[in-house]
Recover the amino acids of this structure.
């Protein structure tokens, strides 16, 4: 059943990964069928779509913040950049969103690399503040940039509904599946990265950058790879948002609150884990939506008090994120008994 | 055979009467209202929504002593006394949430019309949903000019657009120059840099060709949420304008006014758009220094002298909500009445009939609680009968000073120096 | 270009800069001792502004008079926040610490709106209002007071940290927690003290700020980003650095607002921050 090594550690058995894969498989099947169960009602569908979108963005952030250990609180910039780049490419060149979105992702990768190159020299809180001020500068610049719509924002012209136009009007169900594809892709990429040499080096950088350097790896190079992957994913999500809402302006796609949310989701879910961002997205999105619906109105801010209180609670009692629940002593004992290893 | 025909006739008649009876039993008209009820604009959103709630109440209840439209009879007479049921939703200032709420209200709450949304960016997306689903959308306070430039059929706006409001500034100055010995020549524009301020500045700049006697001295944009406005004010001082057009929200209005006083900046006049410089918060914060600011208003309580409806609605709002009504709740109240009037004329809850009735709206001044000439929509859904006024804070009270024919006191011009 | 105008801009910039510095000093002290960035620092400012305002509105107390009480109350509040929240996260990652203070920020903003409404309040006249005219230059009294306050606070903190026994303990706890503990220093109490003093500093800033800036639930957000940049630019943990960079930022934003674009006046500030930390990765005066 389980192989007990001399130092007491439990080696993973053959059942472990098999069970994990089954869990993922069941979960994916559930996600595919969920809208049909929910009846495709607008509110629930939107909630689920948002969860998927934020899950995807959380995965993107996780590559940089979780696996590489670089806490960036400026990723809202790439969401906005993705949305704006996509719209402007469509406006100037008249191409389909299927061309514009990858182009936007490319722009974000470029921007991320350009920003990361100097900034990755910075450590700890200095890096955090750097990402903050860069994102804020971008927000200010876009607000004053007439060609990009300035403070008034830009509307995406309504096209007949089709997959080619990536616009759906009568039912929002297709958006759900596009978002599902996004989060599945982001998760798959993260899983691949996790198992690859790049992922190994990134985790090593997170733990001890000097040691990595002394082994002959260039931390900068690997951090840039993580940055490129991270910003491309978030940029794609921004392009999706554009197709979903059909309108963008600096406050809605470049706000500081967005940057914080993108970072908060994987952190509360479980930094550096594969399921963390998804768990975090489910919890945070439903928390903020239901708090608003139940408690707002009256304009007294009760919903935000609850939201803030919940964030404090999770940060205090599960500082490693919700996924750390799987590593508490009782759960570990249970897993060992089931022969799943740690 | 004949018995069968008779039976089927009776049956058809019976069904027809039952259906008709069902239609009459639908004594409720559901309207959705989408406003910011939390977040930074939460207070203003709540105040505006309260005015709509008040209007719905006035319509639904019967008060023989009131002269307000629909007040004397309970409900809408054109629908057999049907009452309006108002369903409110909070969009938190987010265009995406606004669109989602619009859709939810149409699909799940089955509203026949929507009213909203305070923020123009939210009105844009929410009305986009309404247009697609062919539901009338009326806005009493979303001012972005392009909202009526989209070629929509279901969007109607009673408030004047940002562009129209900017033009009032020039009309006022032109009028003033006829009276004053020292004519105004140079104008400085200072504005906050989000959608509202940017749009006002652009609209104002676009009018200089039409009013060539004026020149733009400088255009100063500042970041919303400024910690300090020294550089902005010094730029204004250096440009030496005759007047300043000012677009600020409540908070920075206070900051600017204090900074103006610190540096003794006193052009001939400081003219503001929006409610900030005329608000009670502003007067409380500045005391006597709040005097002499000019505000392009939509509505003023002292106009009740010539329009009894204004006095009545102001008193109602004050007694119910404990605060003074100002231009934005007043506009929302008026928009609700316009919508009710259209539904009433349509005589049904059919959305297309309501839309047609809205397009045909023709309300003259004596039916309005706004100091407008009329409410009539042009082909784009914009009300062309509105009229702007300027109030000046005199003795810490907003006093209508323009149009001069409607003034309740004469204007103090030029501004006295602070020290 | 008139010399008078330049001098006016410079002095106004310094005046604002002293306020930024005063807000930042508390933040950098907390970081210096505990390596924790308080993301709710802006809300500490907001609370102290409200305290000063309510003392004025309900008790008729001039902000200058209520200042020591506000600072004292904020000291207790800071200590309380440490024991209630921060202590539990000391062993957690930087992430957890960031987000517990972030949650506190959201909570405090919402609570302020809940209890006191979203209205703007401003103190109309205090002993500290008005303007001093020197030649043709206008010097707002509140900003002179902030300048004095900031200099006194910096000097006071220096004395405390470098000349007293308590200060020695604080520095020891900052440098090496374990070693300090073995020497018998109660690191827990040092942390609480740091939070208390840091909160008292920002409380002083809030009192002074309330004499000329308006109070509302989100006023913290207006100043907080500048505060972080001030701290980071000066070097996390460096009191002198916070003072210097505060002044630098105050002057830079006035000049770039006047000569460049007012709506983008903080962009040069942000660029300056990046330039400084990329050259000297611990900020202007931070220790390696």
């Amino acid at each position: 059943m389980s192989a007990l090594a001399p130092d007491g550690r439990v080696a993973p058995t053959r059942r472990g990964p098999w069970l994990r894969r089954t869990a993922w498989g069941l979960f994916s099947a559930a996600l595919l069928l969920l809208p049909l169960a929910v009846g495709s009602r607008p509110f629930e569908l939107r909630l689920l779509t948002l969860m998927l979108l934020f899950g995807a963005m959380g995965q993107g952030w996780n590559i940089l913040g979780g696996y590489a250990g670089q806490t960036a609180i400026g990723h809202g910039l790439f969401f906005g950049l993705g949305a704006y780049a996509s719209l402007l490419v469509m406006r100037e060149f008249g191409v389909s969103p299927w061309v514009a979105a990858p182009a936007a992702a490319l722009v974000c990768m470029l921007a991320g690399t350009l920003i990361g190159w100097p900034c990755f020299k910075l450590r700890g809180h200095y890096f955090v503040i750097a990402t903050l001020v860069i994102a804020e500068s971008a927000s200010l610049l876009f607000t004053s940039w007439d060609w990009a719509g300035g403070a008034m924002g830009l509307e995406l012209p309504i096209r007949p509904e089709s997959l080619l136009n990536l616009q759906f009007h009568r039912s929002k169900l297709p958006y759900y599946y596009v978002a599902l594809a996004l989060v599945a892709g982001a998760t798959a990429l993260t899983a691949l990265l996790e198992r690859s040499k790049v992922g190994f080096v990134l985790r090593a950088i997170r733990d001890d950058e000097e040691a990595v350097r002394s082994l002959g790896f260039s931390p900068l190079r690997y951090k840039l790879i993580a940055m490129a992957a991270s910003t491309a994913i978030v940029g794609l999500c921004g392009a999706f948002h554009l197709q979903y809402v059909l309108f963008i302006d600096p406050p809605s796609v470049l706000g500081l609150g967005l940057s914080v949310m993108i970072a908060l989701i994987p952190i509360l879910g479980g930094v550096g884990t594969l399921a963390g961002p998804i768990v975090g997205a489910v919890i945070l999105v439903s928390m903020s939506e239901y708090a608003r619906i139940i408690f707002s109105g009256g304009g007294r801010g009760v919903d935000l008090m609850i939201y803030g209180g919940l964030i404090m609670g999770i940060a205090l009692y599960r500082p490693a994120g919700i996924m750390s629940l799987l590593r508490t002593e009782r759960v570990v004992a249970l897993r060992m008994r089931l022969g799943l290893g740690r | 055979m004949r018995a069968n025909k008779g039976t089927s006739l009776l049956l058809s008649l019976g069904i027809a009467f039952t259906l008709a009876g069902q239609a009459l039993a639908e004594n409720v008209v559901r309207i959705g209202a989408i406003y910011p009820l939390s977040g930074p604009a939460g207070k203003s959103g709540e105040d505006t929504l309260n005015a709509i709630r008040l209007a719905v109440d006035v319509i639904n209840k019967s008060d023989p002593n009131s002269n307000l439209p629909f007040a004397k009879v309970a409900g809408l007479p054109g629908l057999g006394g049907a009452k309006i049921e108002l369903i409110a939703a909070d969009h938190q200032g987010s265009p995406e949430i606004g669109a989602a709420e619009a859709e939810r209200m149409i699909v799940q709450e089955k509203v026949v019309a929507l009213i909203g949304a305070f923020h123009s960016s939210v009105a844009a997306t929410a009305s986009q949903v309404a247009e697609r689903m062919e539901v009338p959308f009326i806005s009493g306070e979303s001012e972005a000019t392009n909202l009526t430039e989209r070629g929509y059929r279901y969007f109607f706006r009673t408030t004047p657009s940002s562009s129209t409001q900017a033009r009032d500034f020039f009309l006022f100055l032109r009028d003033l120059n006829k009276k004053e010995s020292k004519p105004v020549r140079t104008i400085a524009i200072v504005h906050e840099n989000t959608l509202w301020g940017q749009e006002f500045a652009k609209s104002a700049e676009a009018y200089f060709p039409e009013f060539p006697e004026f020149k733009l001295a400088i255009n100063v944009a500042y970041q919303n949420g400024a910690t300090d406005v020294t550089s902005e004010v010094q730029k204004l001082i250096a440009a030496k304008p005759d007047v300043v057009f000012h677009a600020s929200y409540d908070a920075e209005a206070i900051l600017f006014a204090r900074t103006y006083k610190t540096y003794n900046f006193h052009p001939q006049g400081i003219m503001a758009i929006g409610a900030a410089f005329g608000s009670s918060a502003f007067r409380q914060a500045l005391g006597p220094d709040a005097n002499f600011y000019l505000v392009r208003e939509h509505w003023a309580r002292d106009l009740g002298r010539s329009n009894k409806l204004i006095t009545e609605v102001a008193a109602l709002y004050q007694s119910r909500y404990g605060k003074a009504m100002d231009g934005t709740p007043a506009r929302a109240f008026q928009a609700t009445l316009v919508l009710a009037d259209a539904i009433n004329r349509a005589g049904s809850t059919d959305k297309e009939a309501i839309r047609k009735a809205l397009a045909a709206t023709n309300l003259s001044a004596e039916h309005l609680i706004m100091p407008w000439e009329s409410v009539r929509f042009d082909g784009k859904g914009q009300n062309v009968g509105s009229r702007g006024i300027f109030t000046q804070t005199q003795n810490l009270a907003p006093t209508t000073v323009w149009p001069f024919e409607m003034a309740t006191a004469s204007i103090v011009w030029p501004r006295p120096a602070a020290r | 270009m008139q010399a008078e105008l330049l001098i006016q801009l410079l002095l106004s910039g310094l005046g604002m800069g002293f306020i930024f510095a005063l807000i930042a000093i508390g933040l950098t002290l907390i970081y210096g001792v505990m390596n924790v960035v308080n993301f709710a620092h802006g809300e500490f400012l907001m609370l102290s502004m409200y305290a000063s305002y309510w003392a004025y509105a309900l008790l008729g107390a001039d902000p200058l008079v209520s200042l020591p009480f506000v600072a004292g109350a904020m000291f207790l509040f800071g200590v309380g926040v440490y024991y209630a929240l921060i202590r539990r996260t000391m062993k957690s990652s930087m992430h957890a610490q960031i987000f517990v203070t972030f949650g506190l920020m959201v909570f405090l903003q919402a609570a302020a709106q809940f209890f006191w409404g979203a209205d703007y309040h401003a103190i109309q006249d205090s002993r500290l209002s008005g303007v001093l005219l020197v030649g043709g230059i206008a010097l707002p009294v509140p900003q002179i007071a902030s300048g004095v306050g900031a200099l006194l606070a910096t000097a006071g903190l220096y004395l405390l940290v470098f000349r007293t026994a308590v200060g020695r303990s604080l520095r020891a706890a900052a440098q090496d927690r374990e070693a300090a503990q073995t020497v018998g220093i109660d690191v827990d109490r040092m942390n609480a003290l740091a939070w208390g003093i840091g909160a008292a500093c920002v409380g002083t800033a809030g009192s002074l700020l309330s004499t000329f800036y308006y109070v509302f639930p989100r006023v913290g957000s207006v100043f907080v980003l500048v505060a972080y940049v001030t701290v980071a630019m000066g070097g996390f943990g460096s009191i002198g650095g916070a003072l210097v960079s505060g002044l630098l930022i105050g002057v830079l934003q006035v000049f770039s607002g006047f000569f460049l674009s007012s709506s983008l006046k903080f962009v040069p500030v942000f660029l300056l921050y990046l330039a400084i930390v990329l050259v000297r990765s611990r900020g202007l005066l931070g220790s390696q």
Remarks:
- Chain A touches chain C through 47 residues (CB under 8 Å).
